[in-house]
Amino acid sequence: GQQVVTLKKTNADLSSLWQVQEGYQSTCKVGKTISCGEIVRFMHLATKKRLHSHDFRSALSQAQEVSGFGDDTGEYGVEGGDKSDDWQVICDGEYWVSNEKVQFLHVETGAYLR
User: Rounded to whole angstroms, what are the CA distances from 50 to 2, 99, 100, 101, 109?
Assistant: First the structure.
């Protein structure tokens, strides 16, 4: 199922942790450095739902809707998902570096995560 996703400006809460994974139908080695321009997916560690978007407007913000979608039981779990889970890493330089500016572009719709 689908779940509401909201922004929290804290990193002290375990419920706000997301795992960076390879893009849909891609593979990568655990611990691999992430290149600027690479396609990734984000999985919420507590719920196993992926950060998902599509061309619909949010009722709250009127911006493009972003949600947590799927579960860890198969099609939308660790092995599943779809191309609506893909985000392109937009950054300066060759690699995504911690504590440096980074943006995420939704591949399917061309909208930035904000």
Answer: 9, 23, 23, 22, 16
